[in-house]
Amino acid sequence: MKRTSYWRRFGITGRGLVVVLPYVWLLLFFVVPFVIVLKISFSDIDLAIPPYKPLLEWVGENSLAIKVNFNNYAFLFTDSLYLNALLNSIKVAFISTLFCLAIGYPMAYGIARSKPSTRNVLLLLVILPFWTSLLLRVYAWIGLLKANGVINNVLIWLGVIHEPLSLLYTPFAMYVGIVYSYLPFMILPLYANLEKMDWQLLEAAEDLGCRPWQAFYKITVPLSRNGMLAGSMLVFIPAVGEFVIPALLGGPNALMIGRVLWDEFFSNRAWPVASAVAILLLIILVPFMMWYQSVQARESAGR
Amino acid sequence: MNYRRSVFIISCLAFGFAFLYIPILSMVVFSFNASKLVTVWDSANSPTLKWYSSLLHNEEILDAAWISLKVALINASGAVILGTLAGFGLARFSQFRGRFTLNAMTTAPLVMPEVITGLSLLLLFVALEQLIGWPAGRGITTMTIGHMTFSMAYVTVVVQSRLATFDTALEEAAMDLGARPLKVFFVITLPIIFPAIFSGWLLAFILSWDDLVISSFTSGPGSSTLPMVVFSKVRLGVSPEINVLATITILVVTAMIVGVSVWVARAAKAEAAAT
Amino acid sequence: MTTAGAVKAAPWRDPSARPYVEVERVTKSFGDFKAVDDVSLKIYKGEIFCLLGASGCGKTTLLRILGGFETPSSGRIFIDGEDMTGVPPYERPVNMMFQSYALFPHMTVEQNVAFGLKQDRVPKGEIAERVATMLDLVKLGSFARRKPHQLSGGQKQRVALARSLVKRPKLLLLDEPLGALDKKLREHTQFELISLQDQLGVTFVVVTHDQEEAMTLASRIGVMNQGEIVQAGTPSEIYEFPSSKFVADFVGSVNIFEGKLLEDEPEYVRIASEELGGTLYVSHGISAAPEATVWAAVRPEKVFMSTAQPEGTDNVVRGAVQDIAYLGDLSIYLVKLPTGKVVRVTQPNTSRHAEAITWDQQVYLTWDSTSPVVVTR
After folding, report:
1. How far apart are CA B232 and CA B249, in angstroms?
2. Are B137 and B222 in contact (CB under 8 A)?
């Protein structure tokens, strides 16, 4: 039986006051901007400051004309650059998520199964990189992957290769960078989920004749589904729109939508086009965000 | 519980941690390398501290660090207030008009690609400037507002999850003894969840300090943050001063985290011993 | 007059006595579910009134309504003559002792106890004095500076008690006060609670699922089931004169025989029971419809067991000992009748070398004609 919160008695005034400040702030600085992006995606580019024409214009004495320009969106669909970038971003994000899962799950599992004292140390070691600047950590890979970088130097010194491999400014470097940066985001929700598991279920299964790997497949994996989904969403969704890593590690051929948006905005000053790209990206990602929300809701309901 | 772990798991852990830490360690090591090429070890002149002194005299980096600090401090404090209010509301009031929206607005920034958030914020500021004249150009103010918007989402999550495990009987007991709800919040709830609020503050601080994309969109002339300066340098390739910066950052963060963990562990031990 | 004295006068029997706490037709619904269903109660000053029932029966909800943490969907609450129905907890002269104690972890024992007084803006000197007196009363004087996590379960409970009593509330609500304590401590604390209440003269309302606790503490018990009070009365009234099968079975153990009335006279009734395989003669009249099914309840300690056949045909039955549980001070025997029904008999072990009755032994069971209680529902 759920206890009615005492705060209910307060009616609208007290409760409303508590949430009104963050609510208004987010409405103003998070939601309204998206509306503006939508609006600008329908306007014309203009050689002015700001570089777009207004949506509403006075035409004559008493009439207002709304000019909704679908050109920007048409442009996106006709020029293959954007579609390719979008599809490539989704592909890259998806594959990176799989790698994060492949590396992160055993790690999270290992941490969850350790003694409490070791566990805290291991968790600390996972969190530490997370608190160090992403930018700097990606930079570290430049040092490792470049022609006279650490990896090439070591391989040459070992005699494995004789000429440096071209590792930097390749899609490979970008994958490494993304998996590297987002790994903690996969490990932590997975760990949180696995930590709550009742390990006696596995012992019961083995007692009933199940072999360890079977028990893992049949019990641990299904129960950690929410953790896997949460971690995957935390990696996939931001990775699709990732900019820094492709810019620093990917080289000119790494076509990611985040980079396209940035270039469109800063280099070409084509704000309306950039806005259209943003809206498109948003439309694709919103279903995943809602999926993430529902996974979180399910997880906390089961608590 | 049976703490057995298979060889497979242990080797995965080893590989995973090596993967996480080798880049970091390599940066630290090469910060002492005299060669400008950074990754080619100049054994004749290394190890050296020359890049350290060079960094500490680099005006551009120091100015940028100062700006980053200001923004991060204001951002963290503001985000904590907004995030605590939102987290409290979401955790305690199971039903109110706009709850779904507030919940969505506080979880979306966590996963939203920063280019989208950054772009939208910039367009907002431009439109606002046209409409009412404020903000006049972009700079520290607009950056701080942008940072606060996504930082508060993180604080909300931290506070909300802390309050979910909070024993409401404590608040009821306080009310039963005569304290009005507002007093209960400040005298009972807040002190008890303070560690969560503090970690939310730290999280907001670090997110702002490290942020590149949103800062780039929302900054103006003369308000370059440290990550922005680093990015422009790093786009051109490696730079020994950046290695130094990385080393210093890692040391500070490590000291902070280890310090906090030890402090928490000691307090927990004292509590357990006294019971 | 002491609290115990005031209560001995049995004010609930006096129609002109004014109740201290009155619950008037209170109902509390959560959606379709009625947690409290049209409950009316009168509680008198100085009583220890126990709400007894299984989990989910609504007793905690009723307590929370008295405390102001829930508002009734309908009905009213009066405390010392004033209508307190919509009044929030911080404005009620009522204090509650929570099941989990709810001690403020970031404050010392002293600060915890002083908290309520601070809210009332009591002058500092007086606060210190009252806190010290109360801590001495619960024998925690030397623990004033400790923090809750440094206390044992029993000590925490005493702090919670001190904290809620220091404000001299008109009514103290206790939610399963002894639930977290082990058996020995529980017994000890039960008597301490009674003594404390007597000294301070505070009216208690206690919620518990433990009938032993209710029987020990209460001046009166209200047995609750599914949101309703099924019977309210003194412990002996509830035990010896249950008004229904439910109450008879809930409080203590009981043997219930279903049967039909053979003879129905003002001074006695005779009941034929198939379950029993015989007849019961009850030496008091009951009111029941002529062909109604009735149930006769006989407490285990009122059943006599012997190997020799007793006289008479009423209230006598033969059976075989199926099981014995030796509890030290008494033994419980389960005797199986030819009809298949198992009768529970308890006998004190009065002698150390008594001639023991063993398994499978044939015995005769009998009871006095005043022992059965006949209920019609």
Report:
1. 18
2. no
Domain covering C3-245 assigned CATH 3.40.718.10 in the classification: no
Total domains in the fold of chain A: 1
Say if residues B243 and B30 touch (Cβ distance below 8 Å).
yes
Q: What is the ipTM of this complex?
A: 0.85
Give yes or no for a contact between A14 and C93, defined as CB atoms under 8 angstroms apart.
no
Structure tokens at C359: 């398994």
Q: Look at B114 and A122 and tell me if their CB atoms are within 8 Å.
A: no
* Spatial contact of C149 and C105, defined as CB atoms under 8 Å apart: yes
- In angstroms, the Cα distances linking A263 to A64, A196, A260, A273, B221 are 34, 45, 5, 11, 19
Q: What residues of chain A lie within 8 A of the CB of B1, using their CB?
A: 199
**Which structure tokens are listed for C211?**
């009938």
Return all residues near A211 (Cβ < 8 A) that are at least 6 apart.
none
Report angle CA C193, C195, C197 to the nearest 5 degrees.
70
Residue A52 forms part of a structural domain: no
Name subunits touching A (3+ CB pairs < 8 A): B, C
Question: Is A29 within the bounds of a domain?
Answer: no
Helix axes B190-210, B140-164, angle to 10 degrees: 140
- d(CA A200, nearest CA chain C) in Å: 27
Three-class HEC string of B245-274: HHHHHHHHHHHHHHHHHHHHHHHHHHHHHH
* Residue ranges of chain C assigned to CATH 2.40.50.140: 253-375
% of chain C surpassing 70 pLDDT: 97
Q: Looking at the complex, does the CB of residue A9 fall below 8 Å from at least one CB of chain C?
A: yes
Cis peptide before B109 (omega within 30 of 0): no
Identity of the residue numbered C278:
G
- C-beta separation of C174 from C49 below 8 A: no
Supply the range of the domain harboring residue A199.
75-301
Question: For chain B, which chains pass the contact test of at least 3 CB pairs under 8 Å?
Answer: A, C
CA distance B83 to A131: 20
| pLDDT tens column, B179-223 | 998 899 999 999 999 988 988 998 999 999 999 999 999 998 889
Report the C-alpha gap between B200 and B79 in whole angstroms.
9
Chain C residue at shortest CA distance from A4: C70
Please check whether residue A2 touches C, CB under 8 A: yes
Q: What is the pTM of this model?
A: 0.83
For each of the domains in chain B, give its residue range(s) and CATH number, in order of start: 60-241 (1.10.3720.10)
Q: Is residue A59 part of a domain?
A: no
Does domain C253-375 fall under CATH 2.40.50.140? My reply is yes
C327-344 pLDDT, tens digit each: 888 899 999 999 999 999
Residues 6 or more apart from C220 whose CB is under 8 A from it?
Answer: C12, C47, C48, C49, C50, C232, C233, C234, C235
Q: Which of A4, A19, A27, A97 to mutate to test the interface with B (most CBs of B within 10 A)?
A: A19
Which of C372, C366, C300 has the alpha carbon at shortest distance from C333?
C300
Angstrom distance (rounded) from CA B136 to CA A265: 21
Within a domain: A229: yes
Strand C373-375 and strand C33-43: pairing? unpaired
- Element containing residue B231 per DSSP (H, E): helix B226-234
CATH of the domain at A107: 1.10.3720.10
Is the distance from CB of B158 to CB of B195 less than 8 angstroms? no
**Residue of A235, A116, A247 lying closest to A187 (CA atoms):** A235
Q: What is the pLDDT of residues A15-28, one digit of tens each?
A: 677 888 999 999 99
Contacts across the A-C interface (CB distance below 8 Å): 16
DSSP per-residue string spanning B169-210: HHHHHHHHTT--HHHHIIIIIHHHHHHHHHHHHHHHHHHHHH
A63, exposed or middle or buried, with CB in 10 Å at 0-12, 13-18, 19+?
A: exposed
**Residue ranges, CATH 3.40.50.300, chain C:** 3-245
